[in-house]
Write a structure and sequence with these properties.
Layout (H helix, E strand, L loop, with lengths): L1 H25 L4 E5 L8 E5 L3 E6 L4 E5 L8 H27 L9 H38 L10 E2 L1 H33 L10 H7 L8
Antiparallel strand pairs: 1-2, 1-5, 2-3, 3-4
Protein name: Claudin
GO molecular function, one term: structural molecule activity
Main location: other
């Protein structure tokens, strides 16, 4: 029962990780720049994401521009696009596979098949967490390095936005869920190796019937 409840807890963490991963991939606020200027009426908040750049004015107007050109983007944005999409795909696969391998479900067949499915789902979650953690770290490093660069004007400096924090948290949830799934399957395999099922040997009826006679009776 403890293993089943732990797997269910890991599954809930993985669900939060999947939703957060997808949200972080689509949100436009990977980096944010608030330019108040000389008048609060002309305050502007600029946000840049993986797929679009958005501008929010203090008057309430909001406009976004899609990034159509891929080759004109910096390398870290191109890598973040690819790795975040892979993270979303792997996390969705992990949800489907782990649903089959969980101990509290009736899918997957026998115990060995469910154990393999549970382990495969854990591996998908770990890979999804790694693919989600790498671009957020790289993106954050670029933001910090540009912010500390004295040659860049203040109006062009950005700070990490909410999508970056969502990416970090989602990657952590996926990594924790993957480790729990893999460790639970490993424990069950180890218990099967240490405590193998007992095999009962029953003598055949032919041996029992022959055991009642002596060979001396036929000499």
């Amino acid at each position: 029962m403890a293993s089943a409840s732990l797997q269910f807890f890991a599954f809930i963490l993985a669900l939060f990780g999947v939703f957060g991963d997808i949200a972080a991939t689509l949100l436009p606020n990977w980096k944010v720049n608030a330019d108040v200027g000389s008048n609060i009426i002309t305050a502007i908040t600029q946000m840049q994401g993986l797929w679009m750049d958005c501008t929010w004015y203090s008057t309430g107007m909001f406009s976004c521009t899609l990034k159509y050109s891929i080759l004109s983007l910096p390398v870290y944005i191109q890598a973040a696009r690819t790795t975040m999409v892979l993270s979303c795909i792997l996390s969705v696969f992990g949800i489907c596979i782990s649903t089959v391998g969980m101990k509290c479900t009736r899918l997957g067949g026998d115990t060995g098949s469910k154990n393999n499915a549970c382990f495969a789902g854990g591996i998908c979650f770990i890979l999804a967490g790694i693919f989600g953690l790498v671009p957020t770290c790289w993106y954050t490093r670029e933001i910090i390095s540009n912010f500390l660069d004295q040659t860049i004007p203040e109006s062009s400096k950005y700070e990490p936005g909410g999508a970056v924090y969502a990416g970090f948290i989602s990657a952590g949830f996926l990594l924790i869920a993957g480790v729990i799934f893999c460790s639970s399957c490993f424990k069950r395999q180890q218990e099967a190796w240490i405590y193998p099922p007992k095999q009962h040997h029953f003598p055949s009826t032919e041996q029992e019937s022959n055991a009642g006679y002596s060979l001396k009776d036929y000499v």
